[in-house]
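Morning F.,

Quick status update on the modeling queue. The single chain you submitted on Monday has been processed. Sequence for confirmation:
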Amino acid sequence: MKRVVTVACLAWLTGVVEPSAFAAPITIGLFAPSAPFPSTAARVELVSRLGASLGTAMKVPVSGRVYARAADFATAVKKGEVTLALVDPAYLAGAGTSPMVIAASLYADGKTASAWQFVARGGAKIADFKGTHVLVPSLGGREGDFVQNVLLDGGAGRDFFAKIEAAPDTASALAALGLGKADAAIVPVVGALPQGTLAVPAVPALPTLPNPVLVVYGTLRADELGAVRDVAKGFQGDATIAGFRAPDADTNDDAVRDLARRFSAAIKLGPFVVPVVRLDVGDLVSGRTFGIERTPATTFAIIPPPR
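Structure tokens below.
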């Protein structure tokens, strides 16, 4: 059964607001498992408030939908049911899609990116967790590539962990770890950790990745895009996503494409040296004597047989 929460944002009040050039209804989708929302209700509240702000500014009907599964979100996008979306860049990279990024989300720390951490019960280093069961927020099927190639940069072998499993979201991954249903969880560095767990040091440290980004899937005119950017810029969020900022080098379309390239295992070659060969004819003939051996002329003469 599809787990899709639909929120109607009543921004179109017939007879109260004048008609607008922005006539087409807008649907905002939310699929951001890594974002540390405490519950589904918090996700619904966030997308509802964003939709209401957008509907008021653009004077169009706006609806918001929260997607719990990557497959449901991908299907909605394919059917053209999503105009805008707040989505994890890692999901976009893993899915091989790169829609236009129009805003980067800010967490409570005021940053548009978050470091990731390896959380477990005990353990001095990640190497102590060989053969264990690890959870990571859902990416739609490419969680193994994400952990091995993006987070660990190929530092652990394909069979290092016994199992890499997708959790519905960051909160679910940490909750499962707290209940002993997994040995470790890899999540963004946000919020409090379950009792009895700690962040295990990683060498090298796990990377910093972009927070969820606001992207465009539908077709919007330049003036419509401008209106969306204005709404995002002035949006006051909640305790999880405080607001939005214009994308920069770390959160734009190129950043998503760069992240996509990191999903493939890097081919690492050992160091090698190619000697520079320079041959000097003088060095080749130095100290040597050359001559042409003389051959008697009779060798080349034809002598007729005796009669």
